[in-house]
Amino acid sequence: MVKLNRIYTKTGDDGTTGLVRGPRRPKSDVRIDAYGTVEEANACVGMARLHTGSMPKIDMLLARIQNDLFDVGSDLATPGADDPAADYPTLRIRPVQTEFLERQIDHYNADIAPLKSFILPGGSPLAAALHLARTVTRRAERITVELAAVEADTSPEALRYLNRLSDLLFVLGRVANSNGVKDVLWVPGNYGDVKKGG
User: Among 98, 122, 169, 193, who pairs with 184 as Cys (CB 3.0-4.6 Å)?
Assistant: First the structure.
């Protein structure tokens, strides 16, 4: 387990940071951006949990997701293959964790009416917070795709997990809006009706 007894080390004052292994990298490095954005998504999930008081099962699910996101972050912070002589294998996100998300998507989506319009982030406080977490997760996914394009050892399972997680957060946002009944629907602008000079 991790033991932290110092909060500041001053080692990052030169604009670099350490990974789980390998040389230090600039804090602007795409790998740092990837797992940093995963951490941001985790914080958004934590904010969503402030609104789950009447939905304890959703809260438990989000708690599990927060722990899994730490695994994703550790995976992305550990470039390169394991040393066969290492005492412990690298912590990687595993297919079983992604498959768990898929089962949750199927379970929660089963009772929701199909969409007939795009929806806007909003409705209940929980739904709005889940949509925020979803969009940050999508950004983490995009940055991880960028990382994979330049570093071939990027975990494909981390990408799969982030993709499924954003889908699940979308579904849970609809659950939080009374299974979609209180979704805020997108109303396209009809600019043809705008008078000239108006």
Answer: 122
